[in-house]
């Protein structure tokens, strides 16, 4: 049996329409603020997120707290997973045991101050034919709002585990 999801915005996410009208309408707005950048704090306007941010040890910082790349990886994995569940359900595939991992890389191009982001998404769709799973992953990538936001700006690698 396929997973059923009937939350707000499903049709908008899958078809690019909202309420039968062409285009998009705002369903939700998240607001966050940063003080101190990579060595500071991020908070949301509702107070549900209030995190100290630190530069990771790999970049010469103290580590010991989340960093922007980790937050982006977590958000992308969750959003992609939702799109995967929706697309799989439409294909009659049960994605209950699916898993999504996102790796966000901070990359430097030549100059010291020229940085870009790279993303790798690995999807686990156990017990699904690999060809069908591959099609579902590609469709989820086409429909995921985060994937679309990054389109043309960020290199995103898709992997089926």
UniProtKB/TrEMBL annotation:
InterPro entries: KH_dom-like_a/b, OHR, OsmC/Ohr_fam, OsmC/Ohrsf. It holds the Pfam family OsmC. Belongs to the OsmC/Ohr family. NCBIfam families: organ_hyd_perox. This is Ohr subfamily peroxiredoxin. It comes from Streptosporangium brasiliense.
